[in-house]
Amino acid sequence: MLASLALLGLGALIGLAYSHRVAAPIPSTPDYHLLTVDSGYVYSARFAPDDTAIVYGEARGGQPVALFSTRSDATVSRPLDLPAADVVGIADNGDMALILDRHHDGSWLRVGTLATVALAGGAPRALYENVYDADIAADGSALAVVRSDGVGQRLEYPIGTTIYRNEGWISSPRISHDGRRVAFADHPIGGDDIGYVTVVEPGKPLVRASGLLNF
To answer: Which of 2, 186, 194, 210 is most enclosed, with most CB atoms within 10 A?
Structure first.
């Protein structure tokens, strides 16, 4: 359960730092509280458009990752009637980006099929195979994806337009609310979780946080 809580907390912080929605500044001393009580491993978590509901992907009891929803003021979750998947983004209109059947592809890498589905329900629409990570723009009009580049990986935004590549791997892409920038974790060494928080905006110099971090 500790791993579950730690990852859910990390997902919340990343979601707040690069939120699709214009929100109040993050307080200097964040307020943490329990959201899940099950013994499992949380791989992904995203706020819904109302900033209160939370969708997350968790593996419980050795089972595949399943999607659940909860609220920021509750500790009770309900399963969503969706296939095994991670949630990688939720647009303001309720469109969700999922990675279906996400499985390990060596070391820290996990890969699957990118799909979209309405938060209100329905069947996921598969879009692209062999996607490692992704995000959806605030208005739902475009997606950012991480795919293999032979030697390393590339970040595409929108899909088909490469805006960054490296010889290691890329994780946690987040599209800014105005759709102009993409923040991500740039891991220069394959098989190593150390990386840089990096922001790319087409036509402008790369912005990178100083110092290496563990993700």
So the answer is: 186
